[in-house]
Amino acid sequence: MFFYYMDLGWRSIKKTPYLSLLMVLAISIGIGITITTFNVYQQMNTNPAGERSTQLFAVQLMSQGKDTWPDINAQITYQDAMNLRQSTIPTRQIAMYKTGAAVQTGDANFQPMLENIRATDSDFFDLFSVPFIYGAPWDKSIDVDAAYQVVIDADLNQRLFKGENSVGRELYLNQMPYQVVGVIADWHQSPKYYDLNNGPFSDPESIYVPLSLAPIEEFESWGNNQSWNTENIRNYQEGLHSETHWLQYWVELESEQQVQDYQAWLQAYVKQQQGLGRFERDDARGEVSDVQAWLDFNKVVPEDNKILVGLSVLFLVVCLVNMLGLLLAKFLKRAPEVGVRRAIGASRLQIFAQYMIEVAMIGAAGGVFGLLWAWMALSLLTSRFKLGEALTQLDLSMWIFAPMIAIVSTLLAGMYPAWRICRTQPSIYLKSQ
Amino acid sequence: MLAMKNVSKIFKTDLVETHALRDFNLEVNEGEFVAVTGPSGSGKTTFLNIAGLLEGFTQGDYFLDGVNISNVSDNKSAAIRNEKIGFIFQGFNLISDLNLAENVEVPLRYRGFNAKERQRRVIEALEQVGLAARMKHLPSQLSGGQQQRVAIARALAGKPRFLLADEPTGNLDSLMARQVMALLENINQAGTTIIMVTHDGDLARRAQRNIQIVDGQVCDFSLYQGQDLSATKEAHQQVNIANKPVAV
User: Fold this and answer.
1) Sequence ranges of the domains in chain B
2) Confidence of residue A307 (pLDDT cuts 50, 70, 90)
3) Chain B interface, best mutation among A344, A430, A431, A432, by max B CB count within 10 A
4) Cα A116 to Cα A130: distance, rounded to the nearest angstrom
5) B55–A425: do the CB atoms touch at under 8 Å?
6) What stretches in chain B show pLDDT beneath 70?
7) How far apart are the two ends of chain B, measured CA to CA in Å?
8) What residues in B contact A342, CB-CB < 8 Å?
9) Which ipTM value was assigned to this complex?
10) Residue of A352, A401, A325, A403 whose CA lies nearest to A23
11) Can you tell me the mean pLDDT for A43-71?
12) Which residue ranges traverse the bilayer (chain A) (predicted)?
């Protein structure tokens, strides 16, 4: 009967093309707007760390002085980063910050270009599960004894070395030669949870250098810096020992016990530092947050966005109410036919099913058109309002989700009209036709 | 086969109660061709609707094949209509979007027959009414008489035990009416019980039994069947002329 009802539904849609189109338009606009806002919301709300989310922890220290801001810092100082490295509890741990440099190759004709760089430790790649195309991270020993080695991304490898295996080849950062030890695949975490300083949806860096080179090459921080203390910083080395927060620190803790041990270690570290005259506040402490907690702490999804999703759902409801009225008008016009069908043996349930399938067909068409609207709206957001592509990319799940929500919501809207029509008293219409 | 005992049907509004049927008693036997006549508003259609399970009734009992079906559920009554009862309406009531074959197929769809069985029955029913060659035509492409024959084919396709016909020739000219009536007689001779509501005395007389409904009750005139009533009719007309008001 399902295909029979589909056939009847299709005939009915064809019989009233303008009314059907109006209904498809109503539902598709509602779906289009809902999907657009929901897509942006979902892209913001994604936890890209996946199952690793509960093993990766951002480390925070309440290290600022009295009478400063009341919130725990998102970043730590260089001296704290160096101290935290002393802990043997984490399976892996890394410090890092964003910097940048002019990039050149040995080719004299190559036009130098400015690239974003991440100064970090060797474990960065394993900790965040970064896939390699060629080579591997630099050796761990380089985190202590600096060496001029780099890992670059596939895009830069394409631009510099035409996509060939560039391991062992040389490039220049600020005119200093570096050896390529690895090329990573296209790796774009959205949100960029490991460093939310320059916007959660900013592009990843194309070059990774050992953090141990920072004191030597004096790579400036290209991220946000925070300092609570008025310090007279005269050179880079003084900056390294200042109270300026500019590094991110992540640890990998694989068990609950490990988490507890590390938290205890952090509290001991805070106490030790207090003993040395730092961490002046009474509520000085150390904290770890897994990826989801970290995203929440940094308010990656703004409240406004949630309100926007709510409003778009309300708009969808308005579209559905309109559709309910149109369906009611359309179905009740066919009461005489229903009277005949009921007289010759159709049960109420069969009539209800017939009309609900017609509604579902309208909903499915609305879902497809809604996706089209959403795709157009997201493209518009990218081109006109310069919203990052990471946010405006139509998520794959939406291709299933949009028609599904369209069908389910239209079915809800169609229930009352279908219920009304299935309760048609046949005898009223049989005589009057 | 069909028996109604003390069936009453009251239509109620806030202000009035209308007794469409009152203590209505009727038995129809298997294979009978019963014509139901009566003045407008006497309850003929209400009786037919109740007989066809299209409407409920206020009190009494309705037996079909010996089973009391007075209080069957909506689903059950739909199933009974589908399996046992065929309907023929004055306005044909064909579904305009469906071609003849699809129209005849509708009750078979609800019965759950497979495609092969449906096709066999559709062809058989349309052949019976002489329209098999036009099965792909839409109802709008047929004359009134042909449409009524399609409606009869649709009623016959499910091989019902009895047919309920409500003014089946009401919208047809006399030639078409005679053709449709002949078809119904053939169907009855083949064993199907027919109850036909009509205003046409000539057609009613062709039935085996005549039932007149007056004020929602049965007046069985089968006793007068075969008698010459012309004298009574003439006398009745004379009385009417005598009582006609005269302008002063």
Assistant:
1) 2-242
2) confident
3) A344
4) 17
5) yes
6) 220-248
7) 58
8) 54, 78
9) 0.83
10) A325
11) 86
12) 21-41, 307-332, 352-376, 396-419
